[in-house]
Fold:
Amino acid sequence: MSELTDRNKAVMRRIYDEMWNESNPALAKELFLHPEGVEKFVSGFLQSFPDLQHTVIEIIAEGDQVAAHFASSGTHSGEWMGYAATGKSIHYSGVTWARIADGKIIEHDTCWDQAGLIEQVDTNHPEN
Structure:
């Protein structure tokens, strides 16, 4: 594995270990070339799920591209997308792909089970 690949994987891991798990949305300024939307999203999400923890299942990297498969869990303690806090434990998973240059994420996309999370917090859902 190259030194560049190792550094890029370390950048990706910091998203989960420090920005999410240590509740530090401001870290987006250090990790992302365009941090504004990321910092706002993470901050708002953590208001709804303040104990949210991400577990990195696997990180794969090649050149300037890195992908991370993650699982997340926490408690729905604040309003999220119009759903009042339920106090329920939630779980979801996803994958983040990023392109990194000079230690900063210059492109990224995260696909995660938002529909599954909605089902968990929607008190009108048949399974709730």
Observations:
- The chain is about 35% helix and 35% strand.
- The chain has a mean pLDDT of 96.
- The radius of gyration is 15 Å.
